[in-house]
From TrEMBL:
It comes from Solimonas fluminis. Keywords: FAD, Flavoprotein, Oxidoreductase. Residues 4-118 form the Acyl-CoA dehydrogenase/oxidase N-terminal domain. This is Acyl-CoA dehydrogenase. Its cofactor is FAD. GO terms for biological process: fatty acid beta-oxidation using acyl-CoA dehydrogenase. InterPro entries: Acyl-CoA_dehydrogenase (IPR050741), Acyl-CoA_DH_CS (IPR006089), Acyl-CoA_Oxase/DH_mid-dom (IPR006091), Acyl-CoA_Oxase/DH_mid-dom_sf (IPR046373), AcylCo_DH-like_C (IPR036250), AcylCo_DH/oxidase_C (IPR009075), AcylCoA_DH/ox_N (IPR013786), AcylCoA_DH/ox_N_sf (IPR037069).
Amino acid sequence: MQLTHEHQELYRTTKRFVEEELNPQVPEWEKAGIWPAHEVLKRMGDLGLLGINKPVENGGLGLDYSYQMIFAQALGNCICGGVPMGIGVQTDMATPALARFGSPALRKEYLDPAIRGEMVVSIAVSEASAGSDVASIKTTARREGDDYVINGSKMWITNGTQSDWACMLVNTGEGKPHMNKSLIVVPMDAKGIDRRTKLDKLGMRSSDTAMIFLDNVRVPRRNLIGSEGMGFTIQMMQFQEERLFGAASGIDGLFNLIKETIDYTGQRQAFGQSLLDNQSVHFRLAELRTEVESLKALIYQTTEEYVLGKKAPQEVAMLASMCKLKIGRVSREVTDACLQYWGGQGFMWDNNISRAYRDTRLISIGGGADEVMLGIICKMMNILPGKKKFEARKAAEAAASA
């Protein structure tokens, strides 16, 4: 993928914002267990950073996804994972479906202020008993006049205590689990919503994460995104950008951790020489850098294929799943190896290395666990047992919905 002058300027603008506006505040936000989402996102909206690939008519820049990927990469220079994740929910997890499938009126009411940074948003898919298994969600929305009445609960909702609205996946029918779901914009100040339960997490400490309870919450039916019953399909599409964003936002952070470890081991003396002088150490750091460079190449390739649209959607989905799988595994490998070389200092809570060690562990769980990514890749490679049965079922479902 060729980077233009515009890509480079976007990267510099975003990285400068991260270094000047975010990183100095990270220690405070980590201790507080929350970041000031409205304040930060408003400043980002003023810079035009929240609608890079969103429609111009909604206040976005209308650029292709390669620019969004560069934005995500620059965000990776943040010294914590929680804030970039919260920003990514705003730009790449909760709003893509609305931008593509929402009615003009719905986009004007909810997407425009999200792009300006005047509204904070969440994606509400997971439930306590349905994480990676999206088809198993239990939350329902029944039609009653001009409203949907929603009952259920959502778990692990990023930005959940601060968001103004959520893109929520719910069951709107009794049919097959891949065909009975819908995406609905749910205002978080609606009567019947309880989101006071702020979750205490291992990592991503600066990101507020909530459990949300919904008791007869009434939402106008006009808040439906796309068609009723197409929510699962639309959400699977939305996941592709989420996974690409998550992968791209991890690259620079890993490069920075390796660089910090080189500097530290070059200064740390043990047994008459610096740690870096040990061949096992500098060879290992070279291997880690190679792994991250290889992952970066895969992410760039996937982004290019996604933007050009020359490959079948299934092939791009496979590549995006590979990116998601590898960023989780490479992050675990890099942070574990680097922490080892920092010794006791690396075990201190406020160290960048230990924070990354905690934060990046989520990557192999959230947004689809490693095992789910492997399942998707296997299906695309035609090596999953029961593949023909799977294809027959999907064909029957497609025929039934036609």
